Amino acid sequence: MEGFDRWLSSERGARWLYRKAAGPVHIHRSDDGLRWLEIGAPDKAPVVLLHGSPGGLFDWKALVEDSALVARYRLIVPERPGYGATKPRGPEPSIMQQAERILAALSGEPMPLTVLGYSYGAPVGLAMAGQAPDRVEQFIGLAGQYDPENEMILQVSPYLRFGLFRWLMPRWLWVSNEEKMEHEEALRAALPLFEAARCPIWLLHGTADAIVPTANSPWLAKRLERASGYTVVEGPPTDHKPLPPQHLYLDVRTEKDHSIPFSEPELVVDVLMRLPG
């Protein structure tokens, strides 16, 4: 598992994984070591896809192979700090620091960003919207973890922090566990950034999610309604209509679980294709 992860961290491995991408694949690195892939034509509107924990390029393999999606958007796929070929290779528990690094890496992007964050990538994406409200045009949270007091932690997780396991476990699992154990504090620190967001927000969560409790998305909706003046709308936005600022769409899907990007990538494609062109 570690060897495969290291291979995917190479340019050859990344290109192999995305060999069926529906558009040209470009690999970039920031000065501080963050790697991201870009799929599609440079004149298309950019969509930033933030993976979960653990996660990586494989989270979005099915999406980059969708020809209709790549014909409409330019997909930007960062490897969050601690994962893939992004350096340093150790964990970065801070949601704020992760958001800052990704925004800095994409500082040369001339177009406003649509940010889609999955699972633990969702709070990073929302923090990006709070840090740079002039650059993030809309945010989509897919099965996102936002509430520091409502998080599932495996009973074994605290024991995996012993140094021995750092060498026995694949690096991406070690990083994920370290991220997990610091996530409550990191979420508390990021709450002011969540409340600073002003762009339209679409929160999609499944009622059968056994990894990130479904109540996280309604909790965030209530918090932003109270603290930031968001108007909360039940259900998805109307197809292709411009999304008004400070509107939050709370879209809870019956019986959907946490694995949507893997088990139902067509649902993620549908969400992105519904947005105004």
Keywords, separated by commas or semicolons:
277 residues; Rossmann fold; 38% helix; 9-stranded mixed sheet; alpha/beta; 9 strands
Order of helical and strand elements: HHEEEHHEHEHEHHHEHEEHH
Low-confidence stretches: none
Counting structural domains, the number is: 1
The level of helicity is 25-40%
Question: Which radius of gyration do the C-alpha atoms yield?
Answer: 17 Å
Task: Specify the biggest β-sheet.
Answer: 9 strands, mixed
Terminal Cα separation, in Å? 40 Å
Helical segment tally? 12
CATH class: Alpha Beta
Strand content: 15-25%
Number of strands: 9
CATH superfamily descriptor: Alpha/Beta hydrolase fold, catalytic domain
Structural overview:
With 277 residues, this protein is α/β, with parallel strands linked by helices. The chain has a single domain, classed as Alpha/Beta hydrolase fold, catalytic domain (Rossmann fold, 3-Layer(aba) Sandwich). The chain has twelve helices and nine strands. The protein has helices at residues 2-8, 11-17, 61-64, 67-72, 95-105, 121-131, 163-168, 171-181, 183-196, 216-228, 260-263, 265-274, and strands spanning 25-29, 35-39, 45-50, 73-78, 113-118, 136-142, 201-206, 231-234, 247-253. The protein has a nine-stranded mixed β-sheet with strand order 1-2-4-3-5-6-7-9-8. The radius of gyration is 17 Å and the shape is globular. It starts with a helix and ends with a helix.
In a few lines, what is going on in this structure?
This protein has 277 residues and is of the alpha/beta class.
List the helices and strands and how they pair.
Elements: H1 2-8, H2 11-17, E1 25-29, E2 35-39, E3 45-50, H3 61-64, H4 67-72, E4 73-78, H5 95-105, E5 113-118, H6 121-131, E6 136-142, H7 163-168, H8 171-181, H9 183-196, E7 201-206, H10 216-228, E8 231-234, E9 247-253, H11 260-263, H12 265-274
Parallel strand pairs: 3-4, 3-5, 5-6, 6-7, 7-9, 8-9
Antiparallel strand pairs: 1-2, 2-4
Helix pairs in contact: 5-6, 6-9
